[in-house]
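From the methods appendix. Each design record in this collection lists the tokenized structure first, followed by the designed amino acid sequence. Records were kept in a plain field format so they could be parsed without special tools. The example shown here is representative of the layout used throughout.

RECORD:
FOLD TOKENS (257 positions):
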């Protein structure tokens, strides 16, 4: 499918989505949201793909929702069209989503980062929720996903002051998985994605599903769900292969990748 605001390509068994509105600091327009979700959904059902990387430019992963597009919105328009509910589609992607973040990840950009499963940040990455400076509040899950992942105190600090945090602070509070050199960002993120894409896909999907559950259910239901998925993993040929390979001291050749 032809896209106008993103580039969508494959690198081996990895689907790569590059936000491509560099002049607008990758501001997230409604069209861009639809294209990102569409591309991610295509990779999600593509049997040759095992993980998805989402990235921007060195200067900006995404500087937020497109303020120029939103400037004239009225309440009724935003409410009737349930503005930004379209991002719920990202929450239904079953394959791992890896954000490779360079430069600014602000507002909606930071919220898209928080929708991803692994966040690789360049040393120059900056994160923040500056909506308060625009007279609004985050509307793509910033108050909810961030509070669940980095806690109330840090989320309140970002959301209420509109300040930015650097990659080190974002790693220390748990938003970022790893910090890498700015020049190696994409390469390092792709390596992580390739590694995941080489494992058994049923195991990867179940592992992601189980971790996601931790954010959505009480502990006892989450633990039960994890155990059921764990039990089900013994029905896969990849479990037999993975465990025999370990016992025989060889590397595993998973069939269901
Ligand atoms: N929407 C629309 N355009 C944007 C944008 C945004 N979020 N962010 C940057 N741009 C545009 C600028 O208007 C500018 O366009 P022109 O060349 O046509 O003037 C271009 O990108 C380059 O930006 P700057 O000249 O501002 O670049 P800079 O290096 O001086 O500053 C920046 C970079 C700090 C990211 C600054 O652009 C900025 O603060 N951007 C806005 C950040 C923001 O407020 N984000 C929250 C948006 S609201 C939101 O996301 C709501 C939600 O939760 C869903």
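DESIGN:
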């Amino acid at each position: 499918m032809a896209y106008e605001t993103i580039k969508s390509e494959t690198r081996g068994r990895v689907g790569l989505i590059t936000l491509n509105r560099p002049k607008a600091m990758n501001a997230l327009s409604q069209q861009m949201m639809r294209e990102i979700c569409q591309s991610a959904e295509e990779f999600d059902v593509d049997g040759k793909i095992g993980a998805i990387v989402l990235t921007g430019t060195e200067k900006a992963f995404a500087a937020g929702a497109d303020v120029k597009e939103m400037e004239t919105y009225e309440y009724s328009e935003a409410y009737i069209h349930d503005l930004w509910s379209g991002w719920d589609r990202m929450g239904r992607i079953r394959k791992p989503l890896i954000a490779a973040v360079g430069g600014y990840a602000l507002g909606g950009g930071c919220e898209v980062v928080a929708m991803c499963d692994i966040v690789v940040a360049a040393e120059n990455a900056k994160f923040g929720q500056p909506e308060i400076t625009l007279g609004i509040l985050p509307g793509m899950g910033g108050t909810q996903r961030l509070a669940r992942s980095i806690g109330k105190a840090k989320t309140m600090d970002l959301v209420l002051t509109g300040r930015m945090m650097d990659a080190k602070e974002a790693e220390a509070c748990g938003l970022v998985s790893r910090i890498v050199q700015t020049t190696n960002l994409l390469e390092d993120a792709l390596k992580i994605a390739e590694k995941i894409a080489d494992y058994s896909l049923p195991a990867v999907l179940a592992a992601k599903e189980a971790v996601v559950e931790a954010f959505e259910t009480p502990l006892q239901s989450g633990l039960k769900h994890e155990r059921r998925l764990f039990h089900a993993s013994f029905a896969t040929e990849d479990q037999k292969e993975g465990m025999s390979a370990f016992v025989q001291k060889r590397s595993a050749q998973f069939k269901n990748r």
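APPENDIX NOTE: The chain has two domains: 6-197, 200-248.
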